[in-house]
Amino acid sequence: MTKSLTGKNIAILSTNGVEQAELTEPRQALENAGARTELVSPAKTAKIQAVIYHEPGEKFAFDIPLDLADPEDYDALVLPGGVANPDELRLNPKAVKFVRAFFESDKPIAAICHGPWMLVEADIARGHTLTSWPSLKTDIRNAGGNWIDQDVVQDGLLTTSRKPDDLPAFIREMLKSFAGENGARAAGR
C-alpha cells in the first residue's frame, strides 16, 4: 500500500499536444493520494490542447506559467507524452532547465511515452535504464542511456513507461517513487 502523498507538491510539465490520458490519469492518482498538483506550461494561451492519439482531446487550463514556476517549490515532476508535447518542450531552454533542476536536486521524475525525450534533452538519460515509446530507443541510447522494452522501469529517481496502455504500472511505480517507497531516494542518481 502506497504511503500518502499529503503535503507533496507535484509539477506536471506539459504544453499543446499532450496525450490526454497521460496527463489526467497520473494527475488524478496523485491527487487521490493526497498530493497537490500544478500543471506548468510555457503555452501562450490560457489552455493547452490535449490529444487522444492523433485526434483533438480536451483543453486544460494550466495552473502556472513556466516562467513563474520554481522547481524548488515542488517535490517531484511528471512528464506526460504525446508526440508534439515533449517535442515542443525540448526546444524551450526554460523547460529543459526546469527538468534538469529536479534531477540536480535529487527529486523524483516520472516520464511516459514520448516524455523521456525531455530526459534526453536535459542530459539525464546518460547512465540510466529507461523505457519509452519505441521510437525514442535510438535517442535514449545515443544520449548514453540503456533502453529496454518494459511496461515500466524504475531507475533510482527516474520512473519511465512506454504508452497509455501501461498507465496502471506507471502510476503504481510513480506513486511509490514519489512516496520514497521503492528505495529511489536512497539510490539517488
- Biggest sheet, spatial arrangement of strands: 6-3-1-7-8-12-11
Q: What is the mean pLDDT?
A: 94
Strands, total number: 12
Kindly provide the name of the CATH class: Alpha Beta
CATH architecture: 3-Layer(aba) Sandwich
How much is the radius of gyration in Å? 15 Å
Summarize the structure.
The chain contains 7 helices and 12 strands.
Structure, explained:
By secondary structure, the chain is an alpha/beta fold. The chain has one domain (9-187): Rossmann fold (3-Layer(aba) Sandwich). The protein is 31% helix and 25% strand. The protein contains seven helices and twelve strands. Helix 1 (20-32) packs across helix 6. The longest helix has 13 residues, at 20-32. The relative contact order is 0.17. Residues 184-189 have low confidence and may be disordered.
Feature tags:
single chain, 189 residues, alpha/beta, Rossmann fold, seven-stranded mixed sheet, three-stranded mixed sheet, 12 strands, disordered C terminus
Present the secondary structure layout:
Layout: E1 9-13, E2 18-19, H1 20-32, E3 36-41, E4 47-52, E5 55-61, E6 64-65, E7 76-79, H2 84-89, H3 93-104, E8 109-112, H4 117-121, E9 129-130, H5 137-142, E10 146-147, E11 152-155, E12 158-161, H6 167-179, H7 184-187
Parallel strand pairs: 1-3, 1-7, 2-4, 3-6, 7-8, 8-12, 9-10
Antiparallel strand pairs: 4-5, 11-12
